[in-house]
Amino acid sequence: MKKTFRMMLMTIGALLITAGNSWANTVVYDKVGIFKTETFFIEEFEISEAGSYMASLTNFDFPASMIDTGMSVVTATQLLGSIMLDSTTPAAGSFTFDATPGIYSVAFYGTADPSTASQLGLYGMEISQIPIPAAVWLFGSGLLGLALVSRANKAV
Q1: Residue 68's pLDDT is what?
Q2: pTM for this one?
């Protein structure tokens, strides 16, 4: 009986860890674009689950590095976060923000290098949910197991 209970508890813990890791790749907005000289746009995206999210911006340095790029995530009333990259900063950066279900906007600004022959720049943006660490799921399943063992000992 105890062996079966332990196996069941370990299986539940493994399933919870797997579920936590599968949420790691929940992307709510993703865009890669190439543009000429200067670009600014605003697009809407939807978040369906409350939680912490990470917004990432990358200057792919193709065919040449862009002079500057910037990204902001906003609601109708507030700025949730922003990042600016230029020739003195790394080619990629990110910020985190908390969100509840609803409609959000992402704003992008970029300038390609007009001194290059192509005057083209390639950028990438991604907004993804930050997963709950597997340790939290493991700790939770351990607490559940202790509660069940305690309850089983009281019944005996």
Answers
A1: 85
A2: 0.68
